[in-house]
Amino acid sequence: MDIEFESIERIREYQEELLRKQIHYVSEHSPYYKRMFAGQGVDPDSIRTIDDLQRLPFTEKADLQRYNDDFRCVPKEDIIDYITTSGTLGDPVVFGCTDHDLERLAYNEHKSFACAGLKKGDILQLMTTIDKRFMAGLAYWMGIRRMGASIIRVGNGIPELQWDTIQRLRPTAIMCVPSFILRLIEYAEQHDIDYRHSSIRKIIGIGEGLRDQQFRLNLLGQRIHEKWPEVELYATYSSTEMSATFSECEHACGGHVHPELIIVEIIGEDDKPVKDGEPGEVVITTLGVEGMPLLRFRTGDIAAKVVEQCRCGRNSYRLTPLIGRKHNMIKLKGTTIYPPAINDVLDNTDFVGNYVVVVRPSDAGTDAVIVRISLRDASIQQDEAIKQLKDHFRSRLRVTPEIEVLPADVIQQINFPAKSRKPVKFIDER
């Protein structure tokens, strides 16, 4: 039976069995963690429970950047695939995957797609890159293959090609960055494509949230649903460092953990675990990773843990939609906000096309926020657009950033630089 449907007690017992194996493995094979155990004076065999993890220091992104090769637990000749993180918070980090790690990725995505209701016979149109050293695209392809479903590797962007593929091959599901769906809908409306009666029945989102902390559709999710109510919306959360995915089920009340793949702690400002249901930083320990396993890695993402049984019957805990990234927190005119809140306003403003949010230090020692937008509606005057958008920000966030209107092609170049694998919508210059 799938461990996610077992009792909470059995899930914890099972995770701790795997944790002890992982601790033993890294203490034998990881130069970095060998030094850590010796330096902390901790006997690896004494780490036997999830609570015992608190005796270990955190692994930081800077550790991975500075000592990257020391995290590798296998000879280089055993690395099958090299990937890197996206580098949105600094220099990209290299990860090497063994054959076992690739099989684990396939298993992870198989379970995640099944959680979202995909099955053999479905056709998934993949609107994200599978190259450029990107783990996720490869993992999606392997997961669908393992499931026995079909996949169409179209890649990101190019609405014309996406719709041509949909009309020719009739996929049942789409996987992409959710805001791109609005571009697909806009293209369909401009070219008289009856998208509401297409073959698409599910949209699986990556990289952007679709719901708020109460699991209601956020403004972006609402806008997609209002335009395309016939499709089911699913959100996922993952990262290269995790080598795991949290996917919503049909009840859309948080991303389900796969207990055999990862342990999650939620920590507060004092670096101590918070109570279940309280938001904090997501800290992960990978299970079953062979090439570059991680202990207590600080993701920088802010979310909360939900432990009540889901209506789908799973007892594994879930994570709420991300509130934001700890390092991306903005103090604007005395108000604390995260970029997703700004994105939510922009995504729900009809005349806004593409946009980018820039944060930089101000002369007053606080944060200055500049929102650069292109206009979707050419009939609206720039001054009127800025006034209306400031009103939207004031009503939603109580504060207003600086707003600049630029040509659409300029914003497009910022959003999609040549080396980027994801749309760039947030630039932190602090």
Task: Give a description of the structure.
The protein is of the alpha/beta class and 430 residues long. It folds into two domains: 324 residues, 3-Layer(aba) Sandwich (Rossmann fold), CATH 3.40.50; 100 residues, 2-Layer Sandwich (GMP Synthetase, Chain A, domain 3). The chain contains eleven helices and 21 strands. The strands form six sheets. A six-stranded mixed sheet has the order 4-3-5-6-7-8, sandwiched between helices. Helix 1 crosses helix 2 and helix 9 packs across helix 10. The chain starts with 7 loop residues before the first helix and ends with a strand. The relative contact order is 0.11.
> Helicity, in percent?
25-40%
Principal-axes geometry comes out as globular
Which ranges are low-confidence, i.e. pLDDT below 50, for 5 or more consecutive residues? Answer: none
Find the CATH topology of the largest domain.
Rossmann fold
Q: What is the CATH architecture descriptor of the largest domain?
A: 3-Layer(aba) Sandwich
Strand arrangement, largest sheet? 4-3-5-6-7-8
Q: How many helices does DSSP assign?
A: 11
